[in-house]
Amino acid sequence: MSIFRSIDTSASGLTAERLRMDVISNNIANVNTTRTEDGGPFRREMPIFQARRQNGHFPFQERTLPNMVGSGVRVTTIMKDQTPFKLIYDPNHPDADKDGYVRMPNINIVHEMVDMITATRAYEANVTSINSSKDLITSALSIGRR
């Protein structure tokens, strides 16, 4: 077991949460995008996380902690939200249909801000974990100096 495993685990969380914040920022930036390259309004995107599994073999791991030993998290894909688009009546809009309705992105700005706060808190928790691990390693190394 590596002494830096806890730092590596938290670092994977930092990377995943940074990507999550980037995706949320992209959603917020496209809240009014009614026309994309695909032809329709922008669809909200969501990162999908998956646990990273341990590469090494630890004795008795299979008997004591089956399927519970991981080594962080990774983003497997960025999925498009399939909830329906919002319809807004604006007959003067260039993307309005024959009835005057415009299909707007399926983005709720309040939901995005809550997700951003959650991602920020998770990022901060991982930074705190890394700092605690560094303090623990430093304390362990100072034992031999006395």
Can you offer a commentary on this structure?
With 146 residues, the chain is an alpha+beta fold. It has a domain at 5-31 and 45-80 and 107-143. It contains 3 helices and 4 strands. The protein has helices at 5-29, 61-64, 109-143; strands spanning 45-53, 70-80, 86-89, 101-104. The strands form 2 sheets. A two-stranded antiparallel ribbon has the order 1-2. Helix 1 runs antiparallel to helix 3. The chain is elongated. The mean pLDDT is 87.
Characteristic key phrases:
146 residues; 3 helices; alpha+beta
Count the E strands. 4
Per the principal axes of the C-alpha atoms, what is the gross shape? elongated
Number of helices: 3
Unreliable sequence segments: none
Arithmetic mean of pLDDT: 87
**What would you call the structural class?**
alpha+beta
Largest sheet: 2 strands, antiparallel
Topology:
Blueprint: H1 5-29, E1 45-53, H2 61-64, E2 70-80, E3 86-89, E4 101-104, H3 109-143
Antiparallel strand pairs: 1-2, 3-4
Helix pairs in contact: 1-3
What is this entry, summarized?
By secondary structure, the chain is an alpha+beta fold. It has a domain at 5-31 and 45-80 and 107-143.
